Amino acid sequence: MKKFKFNWGHGILIFMTVFVLLSIIFIIFSLNQSQDLVSDDYYDQGASYSKQIEINKRSENYRDSITINQNNLSIDIKLCQSLINLEDTLFVYFYRPSDKKSDVKYKIQMTENISFPSTNLKSGRYMVKMKWNHLENIYNIEKEITIN
Question: Regarding the domain delimited by 42-147, which CATH topology (the fold level of the hierarchy) does it fall under?
């Protein structure tokens, strides 16, 4: 039986084969990753960011007027009495940065105590974005919560 002799040609062939296999694995892995933007109209929002800065400055006065409490069954939002105008609609957006499919949106009338079931939300970090219009002005408050 003839003994196999390893030479530099075999080394190059093994190196090229391993390189091509690793490249294919990397390409398949990268194609399976989700590439969600923060929002669908991300670039449009960037173009009008100066308006968002004005909204945030106007809303900063109300930041402490909204409290968020959570328990095993619900997430409770309490609004200060001065914020409540029954004609205004509150948009509440539970935004999860790590998974777009876990985002939840609600549109409700403004009342002093608002409750949402926490069973709709997966465990993890959420940004609670609350937005409303009052007297032709837009207000926007964001608070962070962690669901256990």
Answer: Immunoglobulin-like (2.60.40)
What count of residues does the chain have?
Answer: 148
Q: Which one-letter amino acid corresponds to residue 94?
A: F
Distance CA 133, CA 55 (A): 11
Reported in sequence order, the residue ranges of the chain that DSSP labels E, i.e. its strands, are 66-70, 74-79, 89-95, 104-109, 113-117, 124-134, 137-147
The reported pLDDT for the residue numbered 3 is 83
Q: Cα 36 to the chain's mean position, in Å? A: 10
CA 86, distance to chain mean position in Å, is: 29
> How many Å apart are CA 82 and CA 69, to the nearest integer?
19
- What whole-number distance in Å separates Cα of residue 130 and Cα of residue 101? 19
Token pair for 120: 């709709």
Domain extents in the chain: 42-147
CA distance 125 to 147: 6
Residue 33's pLDDT is what? Answer: 80
Q: Please state, for a pLDDT cut of 70, what percent of the chain lies above it.
A: 91
State the pLDDT at residue 8.
92
Q: What gap in Å lies between CA 104 and CA 141, rounded to an integer?
A: 16
